[in-house]
Amino acid sequence: MTQSFECIYDGEVFRPLEKINLKKGERFTVHIECHHSFDPIKLNMPITDDTIQSLRKESWTSF
Length: 63
What we know:
single chain; 10% strand
């Protein structure tokens, strides 16, 4: 049986955000996929529309 559900780690235990179908004391394997929240990037100078337009016009290639 495979289930996927979101949890919050409170520093000691994982707490599911929804009801899960497991019996108390039942053993299972946990695979962790982190969802990071990022703070906005702080720039040292303002970015103008002209700067954005010039970046859009650059040629980007991938190898």
